[in-house]
Amino acid sequence: MTSLTVTTKTAADLAVDALVLGIVGTDDGAALAAGHGLPRKAVVHLQAVLADLEACGAPDELHRVVAVPGVKATSVLLAGLGKAGSRSTSFEHGVLREAAASALRPVRTKRHVAVALPTPDVTSVAAVADGAWAGTYAYDRSTSRAAGRRGRASAAPAGPKVTVVSGAGQGRAVKDAVARAATVGAARDWARDLVNTPPNLLFPQSFAEAVKKRVADSPAKVTVSVLDEKALAKGGFGGILGVGQGSANPPRIVTMSYSPSGAKGSVALVGKGITFDSGGLNIKPSTGMVTMKCDMAGAAAVAATVLAAAELGGPVAVTGYLCLAENMPGGRAQRPSDVVVMRDGTSVEILDTDAEGRMVLADGLCLASEKSPDWVVDIATLTGAQMIALGSDLCGVMGNDDGFRSAVLDAAETAGEGAWPMPLPASLRTKLDTPTADIAHKGDREGGMLTAGIFLSEFVGEGIPWAHLDIAGPAFNSGGPKGRTPKGGTGFGVSTLVGLVEGHAAR
């Protein structure tokens, strides 16, 4: 596994396999970012290389140079930080995070890499550490070994030792920031691995087992309980049972609980965990199913967040509810126009079996609300409408409390995860009216992301601040890697939710 350390040693003196430095765009071309500490002969050599390459220092730019005089590193990677003065030492944290990730990706198989980007303060160090860890990610294919011939799959590289060169010293705050980046990064990688696991290997029961194993391997004090299909039926969880009844793999609700002694408040997280979404009887076109192993990304993010929060040892109790089901068109599958009764007794008419996520989440929200947490957040790859409205990089954030929704958006901004506020207009509630049940589970095509949020709001306990994160776009990257975003599962939401929990502790 990747490891993170911090040092204040001069970058040129680090005998590493690769050394990452920043470059900026100036009126005269690209130049080394200030604070590198390199000897003159190294600077002259690198400036000549940059001129020869006609480098411009753009944020997505990366150059690799070997045998730099006066530098002990085997190679130097020059990562673009954008336009800035040659003496500038202050950069947006998002720029530092993305540059570190982009630079680490091509050298993630190396033994030891040092990152010497401008870090004048603790938050800059934290951003660089976070990005560097993210850039080392590779899916551990050993988890899919059973899907192919024996011996064909190979494990992902172990990951390098990454040393962050700190311009902010090596005090307790800096060390804590780097340690936190490692904890959150490892949890985010687990979420990515869960999303990338083939769906014949990750189904509700095996997901539950994977959570138990990860918790058992962690020093964190997290308890895990599982409701199987019999317990779900006894408990009146009609939403998740209806979704899962067409599959040979029955549904589960996994509860993960971190309860520190003398907890300063309690919060709840609910994650959509559709381990594969065929659409049910409203079956998707074949092209629409290709990435549907990612439909459990919300549950993966919740699981990773609870684990990270517990390993960080914060004072807030955190409970995660993973709502796991497989949506298949079997002979017992749910039909359009069926009516089911949810955990809280609400009857719901099913109009489209491919709008299944809100049904498993609604049961989870009911269960979470029964504990009267200080707030509850659900996270889900919920609607195609989210991607139409906001694209693939931003998630939509809705809620029943403007102040709490703003706190979620602030946490996302700090974490460097794109989020945008969306309304829940009361006028759209009539789209969910039906003479057959208390509520229909879906409105028409217009405002689909918003009516999904309105539906979910019906199942949140009275007086509990709630926010809904629709991550349909940013949860999975079908294209090439970019910045700290790998191809495949992205782990989106983990950093935001961990930050939100920490923010609650600070109140």
From TrEMBL:
Cofactor: how bound: Binds 2 manganese ions per subunit.
Domain Cytosol aminopeptidase: 190-498
Active-site feature positions: K284, R358
CDD domains per UniProt: Peptidase_M17 (cd00433)
Cofactor(s) this protein cannot do without: Mn(2+)
Biological process according to GO: proteolysis
Pfam families, sorted: Peptidase_M17, Peptidase_M17_N
Positions bound to Mn(2+) 1: D277, D354, E356
Catalyses which reaction(s): Release of an N-terminal amino acid, Xaa-|-Yaa-, in which Xaa is preferably Leu, but may be other amino acids including Pro although not Arg or Lys, and Yaa may be Pro. Amino acid amides and methyl esters are also readily hydrolyzed, but rates on arylamides are exceedingly low; Release of an N-terminal amino acid, preferentially leucine, but not glutamic or aspartic acids
CC terms in the record's Gene Ontology section: cytoplasm
UniProt keywords, alphabetically: Aminopeptidase, Cytoplasm, Hydrolase, Manganese, Metal-binding, Protease
Gene3D superfamilies: Leucine Aminopeptidase, subunit E, domain 1, Zn peptidases
EC number: 3.4.11.1, 3.4.11.10
InterPro entries: Leucine_aapep/pepB (IPR011356), Macro_dom-like (IPR043472), Peptidase_M17_C (IPR000819), Peptidase_M17_leu_NH2_pept (IPR023042), Peptidase_M17_N (IPR008283)
Compartments where found: Cytoplasm
Molecular function GO labels: manganese ion binding; metalloaminopeptidase activity
Domain of life assignment: Bacteria
Peptidase M17 leucyl aminopeptidase N-terminal domain ranges (all copies): 23-143
Function according to Swiss-Prot or TrEMBL: Presumably involved in the processing and regular turnover of intracellular proteins. Catalyzes the removal of unsubstituted N-terminal amino acids from various peptides.
Recorded family membership: Belongs to the peptidase M17 family.
Annotated protein name in UniProt: Probable cytosol aminopeptidase
Organism placement in taxonomy: Bacteria, Bacillati, Actinomycetota, Actinomycetes, Micrococcales
Gene name, Swiss-Prot/TrEMBL: pepA
